Amino acid sequence: MTDLPTHTDRKLGLVIDLDTCVGCHACVVSCKGWNTENYGAPLSDVDAYGAEPVGTFLNRIHSYEVQPDQGLVQTVHFPKSCLHCEDAPCVTVCPTGASYKRVEDGIVLVNEQDCIGCGLCAWACPYGAREMDALEGVMKKCTLCVDRIYNDNLPEEDRVPACVRTCPAGARHFGDLGDPDSDVSQLVADRGGMDLMPEQGTKPVNKYLPPRPKDTWEEVDILAPLLTPVTEEPKGFLGWLDKALEKL
Fold first, then answer.
1. Residue of 72, 136, 175, 234 with fewest CB within 10 Å of its CB?
2. What's the rounded Cα separation, in Å, for the pair 83 and 81?
């Protein structure tokens, strides 16, 4: 079995704002694209355009309709991927050492050359964050785009996970959650960031920001700014035409 490090120098992870996520799946598509074309074995698809397509995805979005005790019904879009837990059970059950947690940044990875596809790590993960690639026969999981975040050939703004770079709503944030002064740690402190299923005792690094309560419904006319008159009194040719028509 594989041992976990007693400490990590950093705790790189994601902070996901459930109040901002719109469920557009841009993060899912970008994750699939990047990890198919770059790191490790491709994320394969079987019968992609058939009646029963099956594919490997490292990030998925689940949508729920939630009825609070008070207030209106809310739709919550819930992205889920590996949470890079401090006490990661997927690592300790691995019989070959293929699953491991890095000391330098806390990222949990799979050495695909050593993976025998036994599936023990998937059984041990309480979040269902690991997927067996049917064609490659190895276990796949979120890598936090380790091949992006340390790539000096990329512009600095691109040295973040693909899902973070792509999110159009700004719902995904990346940084060192072991540093209390980092932007992500401050965001967690300000918004009351939460662990997913803390009762499992895995100490996930990734955090979720809860949706804000929606107590009132305000109807907004999105076309109103476009219909507002630019000027009260027509000028130029339109002004002349308006006066000419008034005389008819």
1. 72
2. 6
